[in-house]
Amino acid sequence: MITIAAIATIAFILADIGHEVVGHWIGFALAGGHGGVFTTTRLIETQRLGDAGGVLFDLGGPFGNLLFAAIAWLLLRQTRSAHFRLLLGLTLAFSLFWAFGYLILSGAKAGGDWWAAVQFLPYPWLWRIVFIASGIWLYRESLRAVGTLMPCSRETAVVCYIAGGVIATLGAALDPRGITVGLHDGALVGFGSTVGLLFLPRSAEQSIRRSIPWIAAAAASAAFFIGALGPGIRFSF
Fold this sequence. Notes:
By secondary structure, the protein is mainly α.
């Protein structure tokens, strides 16, 4: 199970980078941003972007999740290795569950990345209903898709869920905005949005053999995630 946990750790880190680094960076660049700080829980912008720029910046995160999910799905169809299939399947799962779990949360609290798309529109109560209903439907469809593409046992699903939640929380421990904010955001994504893993259909899975290279890759990825990206990486362009 340690190799499965290692692969799940790498997969969550990829999903996180898809949202917080790649996705928000694309939105930030399109909004005219020039510099900021990458972290595991947020791209911290160092200048005001304006209303339109803020919308692009916020929507970049979910776009990054969907982009990484699409890439994982395409590669998954071409891959036969059990280890790589698990990595891609989990990257797909973490990315989709994050994107659509966040859609539900955005509707519930009338805030967050997805809410940027409608924050200046009338009838916010209606949009909250639309977000919650569509988020639940899309989350359920994601469960079906992932369950079809990534057969797994209950034990594997639980191990992957815990591994993703743990690395998300540890990665936020050194958040420059403060440990309380960081741990809240990290745990919310790691243990909240990805809870769908625990409800995947149970089926026979490919055997995952113990692999020292995968364990070593996970250790190196976790060290970077916690020790470098966690406290923040400054950038400018």
